[in-house]
Design goal:
Strand content: under 5%
Order of helices and strands: HHHHHHEEHHHHEHHEHHHHHHH
Distance between the termini: 9 Å
CATH topology of the largest domain: Fumarase C, Chain A, domain 2
Number of domains: 3
Number of strands: 4
Oligomer: single chain
């Protein structure tokens, strides 16, 4: 997508589109517009010469147009680049490349969301220990944990989709944005160029207003925040001590024969860190002054392609991860047993609270656990408490110790989310299916 040939080809396509609409509007002779279209073919570019010209000029469009003029002759030289400036061509081309890249992101992100949603549905009622601040908390379901990923990823999908009217906007204003070189028909040319390229029309040029490219990089940064969280969790859950999940094949150690390292999660986590650095750097795009300042603009040329490449690689790895993820419900059950029932303390407290009030129930149960010691199972701690053993029966305790009885509405919430996501991302319902070219 962001290979040199495609980027330069997109610059040339913008020049050709500009000449074409100007020809249709009568600002440029039709034969000149046709000649420009014929001369703006990427196959005709001398790459070594173009690189040398860029080093000399500091910008790519002038040396590129030199070659176009040599190919097209005097008529092309007379009418090429009419009323435009370098930033018009490069910004518009950048927007076209962003649009094409976003189409791929939408496709792969939708696949990932639906893949996670399907796994969440399968484990909608699979009990697992929820952990807060690294400590065992209370039961949840594995499907509920997965559903939180799908919901967050879908919010990123929607943000990216909703950004289109702000981000996918043509740039055409001439030297300083006033359209002076096009006379009184400048806005007409801009609107026609936008229509030809399938872009929106801005109120005025945005040469120094870089919130548009900054926004898209920031939104991709939010997406990587979700991907990084997923990577962190999969790494933690696949620890030898818990082994609640395992990645697919691979991850061997060069020295320890027993190890299977979570390499996919590791890679996604690394890319999330790199992406967040670029998301922060995108704020430097805004460090503009007056009508145009080259230094922050040039940062976009590197950061935007890098961000999309990181996003594509991370989504591909995440799709692969969830396609092969192994879930071990038995290991999840062992997590409850390993806690000695302490994970069910809140469930038992709420049973007790229904009889003596929450405040007193919390105090009595906390005191009983402290008196019995951390290694004493919850049921034994209750039995050792003179006050609690009078209020709670053995059946009360046994019922409270069943994780399946304290899942709240987790399964139903998973069902609701999965239903919504399938309705939104089903066949024909998502832009993810249509990959647009620049």
């Amino acid at each position: 997508m962001f290979a040199d040939r495609n980027v330069v080809g997109t610059w040339l396509a913008v020049e050709a589109a500009l000449a074409s609409v100007q020809g249709e509007l009568g600002l440029v002779p039709l034969e000149a517009a046709q000649a420009i279209e014929g001369a703006t073919q990427v196959e005709q570019i001398d790459w070594a010469r173009l690189r040398a010209g860029i080093r000399s000029v500091g910008r790519p469009i002038a040396p590129l147009l030199e070659q176009v003029v040599e190919t097209g002759g005097p008529l092309v030289e007379e009418w090429l680049h009419w009323g435009a400036t370098t930033q018009d061509i490069m910004d518009t081309a950048s927007v076209l490349l962003i649009r094409a890249a976003l189409s791929l992101v939408h496709r792969d992100l939708a696949r990932l969301i639906l893949r996670i949603a399907a796994l969440a549905e399968r484990h909608r009622a699979t009990p697992v220990v929820a952990r807060t601040n690294g400590q065992d908390a209370v039961p949840t379901t594995f499907g509920f944990l997965l559903a939180s990923y799908a919901a967050e990823l879908d919010r990123s999908r929607l943000r990216l989709q909703q950004s289109a009217p702000r981000v996918l906007v043509v740039q055409f204003g001439g030297a300083v944005g006033t359209l002076a070189a096009c006379g009184q028909r400048g806005q007409e040319v801009r609107a026609a160029l936008a229509a030809r390229l399938g872009l929106d029309v801005p109120d005025l040029s945005w040469t120094a207003s870089r919130d548009r490219p900054a926004e898209i990089v920031q939104l991709l940064g939010l997406l990587h925040g979700a991907l990084g969280r997923i990577a962190n969790d999969i790494t933690l859950w696949s620890r030898s001590a818990t082994a609640e999940v395992a990645e697919g094949p691979g991850g061997a150690s060069s020295t320890m024969p027993q190890k299977r390292n979570p390499r996919a999660s590791e890679s996604i986590g690394a890319m999330a860190r790199l992406a967040r650095l670029r998301a922060g750097g995108a704020l430097d795009f805004l460090d503009q002054s007056e009508v145009r300042q080259g230094a922050p603009w040039m940062a976009e040329w590197s950061v935007i392609p890098e961000m999309f490449m990181l996003t594509a690689a991370s989504l591909a790895r995440a799709n692969e991860l969830f396609a092969q993820l192994r879930v071990d419900p038995a290991a999840m059950r062992r997590g409850f047993a390993a806690s000695g029932g302490h994970v069910m303390a809140e469930a038992l407290m709420m049973t007790l609270a229904s009889r003596i009030g929450r405040g007193r129930a919390h105090r009595l149960l906390k005191a009983a656990l402290a008196a019995a010691g951390p290694d004493t199972p919850l049921a034994a701690a209750v039995a050792q408490s003179a006050e609690l053993s009078v209020i709670l029966t053995r059946e009360d305790v046994e019922r409270a110790l069943d994780p399946a009885g304290y899942l709240g509405l987790a399964p139903q919430m998973v069902d609701g989310l999965v239903h919504r996501l399938r309705a939104a991302l089903g066949a024909g319902a998502s832009p993810a299916g249509a990959v647009q070219s620049p």
